[in-house]
Q: What sequence folds into this?
């Protein structure tokens, strides 16, 4: 591909906004030319904010645009598979938000169809690009910690930004599905994609029972083929704004990476100010404002990388295969929480409609 | 200007490397096409690292290249004025490293000639672009702190990276000249360029007397026209790696921005690893590695901005005038340290060869 | 009891030293009058450091001293039960170090005999007295966090101070036995002694396989009757000095208590200095020295409290019953790690010689 | 003196409460038997809280009590001298709160009379006992930092707890008088009482002009005989609760001691809780609660030490002479702020009624 990649975004809310903003920071590689969202006015609003010329209410119409080379999917989880298939069949490369799908069957089909159609299935796991975490991985590769025996990743806040997350029919699960997928992907990536051997999960719904059947707090222990352990902690019940952390423990050393309170400017304000951090409760009193939030997460770096993959300049660092590994671990996690025992992988239960059914005891699962 | 700015760099060491790396991160705006350094092999080495096609030993030869629109000066302080004048007369826009010059006369001539020749004189004060500090300024503008009465900026390490800094004939002064210029510029900028009313300095040479006549530690108190005070602390005597901090105190709030230990990953390593932070003593034991150091300083943002200024897309946010304000405060600071009293501005002593003479008692000063 | 309690210490090493130092800080309540240790010279050394008048090589001789009212046991785990019984039968109140015993049978006998003999069985869990953690508990009681759903406690370093810890015959287990007992006790206490409903453990020997059969890293998830979850993390494989932390997560708030790096003075030293913190690797380079280490752990507060309990001025806040709860959870933890599933309590396997057998698969366990 | 010291307290507010609480923590050394305060009911309230048996409205009546050996003065600054003289003439040892007096003449008389009467004049500078700062001093003595060239101490909050502080007739000055005295004493003590050679001060009234003529923010640079520099920062204009910090910079190392945010438990609470820290604005949202505040300041350690001095068991570590050194530096600081130049010591202006007159330009000063 000679020129910049032309990008279409499916979605118009939180994640779609991040996609648009991120591509704008890599203008030499990509240009967002279209956005599609079924809700009247939503796509227009995003288009207005970012100067995106073409607006669609039906994403399938957008897929007819010949010049679009890459489509990003920022829609609820239950739509990921169908949209990915449509994109692939229209010959578009795909960036799919996390988690990859609702079921392993869907994941397999997505991988298969994208392969067959010759398009890239890129998995939007930004933690692979978060500069603070990338530094931790580089230090590990340089031998700083010797053999790593424990990797921890934690992501917590007080609940998601869109209503569909609370509805397990559309999300597939609670906080473990929503953010556990980050921690699982992170540990797997950090350990150079050593296979996951087993998963154990503790989960519960402590705060938001009025809103959701999904768990709002989870602890997940992963055993990896190389002998290391992962500990993934997630919560929709943690007050005080977004929290995202990593720890790496090796026989030769340890590092702590705190993405939010770590990078922030401890601030006291009697009057408040514009914005502190994602999901912060306010800006009066003490707060921990972050700077260049998108960049510190790695979103622009991620989207730039994806554009360069489409242009053949880089090899994909986050793929549908990564997303599928995460899906299997999500299945195992929910099943483990139900059984009170660790689940060994590979784990391929049949007739699963959505991962959380394995915990909620939906009779169709098994 | 239609296409990307073509850039030539004068210099081949620490700062020149930062310039080259920073422009590479803004490929849509600028392209480094040439580098000039008198020491045999040095320019080649930099050119090799960054794929810069043209190499010169005499920067004046480089100035003959028609397509170069912008030249950055990363040479010892005593060369800034002469090089700037040469660039301007060759019709090149100029990015001059800090401090702007050795004397106020030089600064005035630089401003005058660049104005006359119709080229931009851009002042390489990266703190205006440091994202963490920019966030502090944004919060101030949003009223977070109410009226600000005290701004603090501190930059400390264990001594400069190039030998010429130790030689006051080439540098013009010690750590106050080298890094105090950052803090003065920062406070002035943070306070929306309120005029500096007076300067008081405490300085001494505590550690490096064998290497330099220059001060290796300084405290500087600035009074501003709007009633606020600045406290600028600098040291070449602080062990443990680079330290760069800001505090903002207002009647309605306060914020703390620690650029290095703040953003870092507290790390223990028995074996060591690649790189922790500028001027760190090592990577074994506890260390505070930073990530994406250039970006966190704001260098790529700064160079991108300068390229866009040359292309007429942005208005310069750091100019020769800023550099001249700093020069006057540097004069006042050295004079104040000598007299033990605050110096009121405007301050324009005559026959000053270099700022530190006002402290060292060089008879020519006064 | 009218005057100060006269105390005898069994042991002469690390913990015995802490006992002696701690009682010295409560001179109005207690006086250490005797120390017993079988190794020639050891008791004398401790006695010399603290001005303890009477020295014994056989603790049973010490128990004949009429005026001694309280005996503290700072001996290897496998001796706790026998010594406690001897003390009780001699009419002495007992402070027993953690963990309480090797087996539940021992624990039950200790409780029974002390009750029968009318002496107090005090359990040396200093975390109940650690002032930073006590503050967290006070805030919880004041409603700061609303309903608490997750309590975390972590204690990590690079391996124990005495060789007997490595020998599971004398210790009963690895790091989970050695320090997991702290975290279990802490969570139980923090949650107002809500019963433990189940235990899940992940453990492994990653670093010290040449020294021990015991696990050197463990993760433990506890479910409590009140619905809250405990996460206890322990390691003998964490470099860089002692690490002790607590987190409390409630639907209404969260707090983080870091005992060592939190309270410490971040310090860089080119030359080193006296002492940083327990098990620190050195004092050159960056280090995190703590101040008044014993006090910040709560040891003097604990021993003063125990002396006051003996004098009838306070009710015991850490008892043999607490120690027994921990023992049952330790059993369950080891069994859980072996089975890969959570163990529900009450859990009372028979013929257990030592807790770790439940993990190591000793055929006698079951 | 054989038994415990019997103590009388003059005052009933903030500081008097600290004295009473602190002595209670050293019951083997001291017993508070009396309190005197002129305001009806105040002394009774304090007596009630701490079980103090005797209550006086006129402290001179209290001085008639034969058994009282030590009197602490927790009254406004302008009363320190008169009360000290009265105590000394009644044969009582004296603990005088900071700053020692209003004038150098008073200080000299206090020293002289106490010497003549054979009583100790103990100066209540708790920073000499603050365990975190004591650790820094120990490390310095052990050579951690090599030769120290810069000591910084800072104490800031949003304004004093009692109205008399705002009235310069009763306090003698603003925040520099109130808290600068701590920083000056600290630097002097930290540098092994090297003489102060000069003082420079920057001060202003930024926030509380409606309440006081006194400065509410000050920066003070001290030069010491041994070549080191002190930087003392104080504010009554800093929001967000008490802030107390120390930095030590030596050619061989550096340490940072943050007393409040350093030791605290970073906490978010939706509902609030009992108490965070002195002068904190609230406990909802993010806060930094401290634990065992008195102990972490060193108050109980200080009062215990003073009681032991009276009993002849220890040599005074904080004396009237220390207080006099501080007084001279306070004079010099105010004079320096007025003149805009450093003041060399010894400095003994005549006819000074109160230190702040040297800044406010009271014609009687000079």
A:
């Amino acid at each position: 591909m000679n020129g910049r990649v032309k990008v279409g975004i499916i979605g118009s809310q939180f994640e779609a906004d991040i996609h648009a903003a991120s591509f704008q920071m890599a203008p030499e590689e990509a240009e967002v030319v279209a956005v599609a969202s079924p809700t009247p006015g939503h796509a227009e609003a995003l288009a207005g904010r970012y100067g995106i010329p073409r607006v669609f209410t039906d994403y399938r119409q957008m897929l007819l645009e010949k010049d679009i080379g890459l489509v990003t999917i920022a829609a609820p989880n239950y739509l990921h598979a169908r949209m990915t298939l449509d994109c692939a069949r229209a010959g578009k490369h795909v960036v799919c938000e996390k988690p990859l799908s609702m079921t392993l069957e869907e994941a397999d089909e997505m991988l298969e169809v994208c392969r067959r159609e010759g398009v890239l299935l890129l998995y939007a796991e930004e933690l692979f690009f978060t500069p603070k975490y990338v530094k931790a991985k580089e230090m590990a590769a340089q031998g700083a910690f010797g053999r790593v025996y424990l990797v921890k990743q934690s992501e917590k806040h007080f609940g998601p930004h869109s209503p569909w997350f609370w509805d397990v029919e559309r999300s597939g699960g609670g906080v473990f599905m929503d953010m556990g997928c980050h921690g699982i992907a992170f540990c797997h990536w950090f350990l150079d994609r050593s296979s996951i051997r087993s998963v154990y999960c503790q989960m519960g719904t402590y705060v938001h029972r009025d809103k959701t059947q999904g768990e709002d707090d989870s602890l997940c222990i992963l055993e990896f083929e190389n002998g290391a352990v992962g500990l993934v902690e997630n919560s929709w019940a943690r007050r005080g704004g977004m929290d995202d952390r990593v720890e790496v423990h090796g026989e030769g050393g340890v590092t702590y990476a705190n993405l939010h309170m770590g990078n922030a400017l401890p601030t006291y304000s009697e009057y408040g100010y514009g914005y502190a951090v994602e999901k912060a409760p306010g800006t009066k009193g003490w707060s921990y404002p972050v700077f260049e939030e998108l960049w510190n997460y790695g979103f622009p770096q991620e989207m730039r990388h994806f554009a360069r993959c489409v242009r053949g300049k880089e090899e994909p660092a986050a793929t549908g295969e990564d997303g599928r590994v995460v899906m299997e671990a999500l299945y195992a996690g929910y099943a483990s929480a139900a059984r009170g025992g660790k689940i060994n992988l590979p784990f391929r239960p049949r007739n699963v409609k959505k991962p959380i059914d394995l915990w909620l005891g939906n009779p169709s699962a098994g």
About this structure: Chain D touches chain C at residues 27-28, 131-132, 134-136, 138-139, 142-146, 252-257, 262-263, 265-274, 283, 289-292, 295 (CB under 8 Å).
